Amino acid sequence: MIRGGEINKGTVLIIKNAPYLVVEREFVNPGKGTAFARCKLKNLKDGSVLSQQVFKTPDTFEDATVDTINAQYIYSEPDAYVFQNAETFDQIMVPTELNPDLKYYLRDDIEYQIVIWDGNPIDVKVPQKMTFIVAESENYIKGDTVSGATKPITTETGLTVRVPLFIKQDEKIVVNTETNEYVERINK
Questions:
Q1: Under CATH, domain 129-186 is a member of which superfamily?
Q2: Rounded mean pLDDT of 85-112?
Q3: What band does 130 get if pLDDT is binned at 50, 70 and 90?
Q4: What CATH number labels 67-125?
C-alpha cells in the first residue's frame, strides 16, 4: 500500500484490477483542506489514459509490484516483438498491440527495459533520447522560408519527425522519444 502523498511520477498503481503508470504528478497544498496529488495515469495493459485523477495525501492505494528486465531487441513477428533477456538469454515476446508505434524505436544496438506485471510483459521502456539516421528528406534552398521553419523527414526505422530545413539525408539526429520532437543534429 502507498499513501497519496508518496505517489510520484513513475509509480505503478492498481486501479480497477489494472496497472496504471503515473505519467504526470502535481502536488497541491491548498490553504484550506487536505493536500492532494493530481495525476495523469496510463493504463499499462490497453494504453488508455486517465487524466485529472486526485489522490488525497492521507488515503492509501494499492501499488503494483512490477519487475523490469533488461533486454535486447532481436526481431519482430506479425503479432509480437521478440526481445532477449540480457541475463538469462531467454526470449520475451511482447505483443505488438501493447504499443504499435514501438516498432519505430526498436534497434538491436540498444538495451530496453521490459516491464513485467503478473508474469506478463506490459510495457517496454524506450530511452528518452535516441539517435536516428535520416533516410528520406526533401532538400530546401537557403532563403526559401523564414527562420524556424521545419520539414518532415523519415528515419531509417520509418519514424516521421519535423526537423529544421538544414537537415539533410544520411545525417544523424537526436529525437525525444516521448514527444517525437527533434532535439539536435549530430555532427560527424
A1: Nucleic acid-binding proteins (2.40.50.140)
A2: 88
A3: very high
A4: 2.40.50.140
